[in-house]
Amino acid sequence: MNRRDSIRSLFLGSMAGGLALESCISAPEEVINEKIWQYQYGRTPEEAARDEALLAQQYFKNTELNTITRLSNLILPPTPEGTIEEAGVPEFIEFMAKDFPGLQTPIRGGLMWLDSYSNKNFGTDFINSTEDQQHQVLDLIAFPDPKASSQKQEVQFFSLMRNLVMTGYFTSPAGIKELGYKGNQPNVWDGVPDDVLKDHGMSYDASWMPKFVDQSKRNDQAVWDDEGNLIS
User: Fold this and answer.
1) Distance between CA 38 and CA 28 in Å, rounded?
2) Residue pLDDT, tens place only, 91-114
3) Which residue in 41, 47, 126, 213 has the fewest CB atoms around it within 10 Å?
């Protein structure tokens, strides 16, 4: 099992308890808004207005968003099934930081640490370091110390980013498709069992039977006349 499969398995396990929680960085605002918030159902007018207000703001600088995009790709590399950019993960993280301001300082501080460490050891910022150098940096912060009573801030930062990346990707259409998650789907229903109908002295109108067993018509809407008789 490769690393991506392991992460996917971990995420599937977390889904059992419920989900708690291209590069479009330089795209026009209306394009970003369309990609970030495609699903407006279930929102009250107040919630929708708040979402729009948050979407109209930009918290992270473009350079920070570029680093978030690169870091996200290192955490969850692209596959033929989907990429971080296609899933809108950087935009998701940007939105989450605005929706939950408590995330702002840990993320921004962690990004600053990545650049500070890279400049000190490689003479350049994190995003311009080689991939091998980037992996060297992440190897220092990707593994919490199980014996420590509290983890270093940079370790907490990486854990936070890993959770955000996984949530952002695996709740996107691309990620859900990769998981093979089907969700709630209607099954085949062939009517009330005959023995139950007989117990109640009832039976189906013959015209209804094809609608139960002919699944090609499962999405057809019944049509009734003014007297309540089934037409089709």
Assistant:
1) 16
2) 999 999 999 999 999 999 999 999
3) 41
